[in-house]
Write a structure and sequence with these properties.
Blueprint lengths: L3 E2 L3 H9 L3 E7 L4 H17 L3 E5 L4 H11 L7 E6 L2 E7 L5 H9 L1
Parallel strand pairs: 1-3, 2-3
Antiparallel strand pairs: 2-4, 4-5
Helix pairs in contact: 2-4
């Protein structure tokens, strides 16, 4: 499944409100920790066909800030959210973003 890049607040709102489980990843293109997390995220999505989206925190800062505000979770980067029916079911950041942690979160 393709990872959707969210570049507007409207895109983000539509993605968050989708029914079912999906992943939202906040990625810093200048951070080595984020680069590692991005690889783990991409591999997981490719192997499982999980619905997923990415926000580039530097390039699309207003969208990134709106996520923190709307979801009520302090911004970190990299950061990932498991959303289900418009609500955050799980989130983590930095080195905790691994293929295994994503698999565990999705299966709960």
């Amino acid at each position: 499944m393709e990872i959707e890049q969210l570049t507007s607040i409207e895109d983000m709102n539509q993605f968050v409100r989708q029914s079912g489980k999906h992943l939202l990843f906040k990625h810093s293109t200048t951070c080595p920790i984020s680069a590692n997390a991005h690889k783990e995220f991409q591999t997981f999505v490719e192997e499982t066909s999980t619905s997923a989206a990415i926000v580039l925190v530097i390039e699309d800062k207003p969208v990134s800030n709106q996520i923190a505000e709307d979801l009520g979770i302090k911004h970190e980067s990299p950061q990932i959210f498991l959303l289900e029916d418009g609500k955050v079911r799980w989130n983590t950041s930095h080195w905790k973003i691994t293929k295994d942690s994503l698999k565990e979160a999705i299966s709960e």
